[in-house]
Automatic annotation (TrEMBL):
Gene Ontology molecular function, alphabetical: RNA binding; transcription antitermination factor activity, RNA binding
One of the protein's GO biological processes: positive regulation of DNA-templated transcription
Organism expressing this protein natively: Paenibacillus nasutitermitis
Keywords linked to the UniProt accession: Glycerol metabolism, RNA-binding, Transcription, Transcription regulation
One Pfam family linked to the record: G3P_antiterm
Its job: Regulates expression of the glpD operon. In the presence of glycerol 3-phosphate (G3P) causes antitermination of transcription of glpD at the inverted repeat of the leader region to enhance its transcription. Binds and stabilizes glpD leader mRNA.
UniProt-listed PANTHER family: GLYCEROL UPTAKE OPERON ANTITERMINATOR REGULATORY PROTEIN (PTHR35787)
Protein's name according to its UniProt entry: Glycerol uptake operon antiterminator regulatory protein
């Protein structure tokens, strides 16, 4: 299991949160809002502290989110994995043998159907379903795709986490620091 049985993939939105995560016993962490000039040092600092970093490529300031950016992230920054809504980024990440996590924003039935077609093309290692508070959709996406699911977005309570996990999510991504502490091993 790549995430070492973590139920929570804590996601840092700020340097303060990133620093908190370095002190917590999570092996995998998600880096959300960041700047290209900070990435290499942040990933290295996390590694020094025994953490594997998943970078959200769509939220890096100063970096265009395309295949060239994905190649740069894979070859130079070398995180454990990359998250993105972009098919080309996911494809390039897989080619570089890093964990590729396709983010899906599920707004309605039409978006869900379009995303199934996208998943057949990209074949990511994981799918992050957003919002993650839709247990029936988590179950359906996992059943239809056969790809492990992460749930994210609007996860506010321990009960939200439990519902997502019961619906078949492998883990929950959250920037809610109270949930980080609640689900620590």
């Amino acid at each position: 299991m790549p995430f070492q049985q973590q139920l929570i993939l804590p996601a840092a939105r700020s340097m303060k949160d990133f620093e908190k995560l370095l002190q917590l016993p999570y092996g995998y962490i998600v880096l959300l809002d960041s700047h290209i000039s900070q990435l290499q040092s942040l990933v290295q600092l996390a590694r020094t502290n025994g953490k594997q970093v998943l970078i959200h490529a769509d939220l890096i300031e100063g970096l265009k989110n395309d295949e060239y950016a994905a190649e740069f992230l894979c070859q130079v920054i070398q995180p454990a994995g990359i998250m993105s809504t972009r098919a080309g980024v996911i494809t390039k990440t897989k080619q570089n043998k890093l964990l590729a996590i396709q983010r899906l924003f599920l707004l309605d039935s039409g978006a869900l159907q379009k995303n199934y077609a996208l998943l057949r093309r990209t074949q990511p290692d994981y799918i992050e379903v957003l919002p993650g508070i839709m247990p029936d959709i988590i179950t359906e996406v996992h059943r239809e795709s056969g790809i492990p699911i992460l749930a994210g977005g609007f996860i506010r309570t321990a009960e939200d986490v439990e519902r997502a996990l019961s619906a078949g999510a492998t883990a929950v991504t959250t920037s809610n620091t109270a949930l980080w502490k609640h689900f620590m091993k």
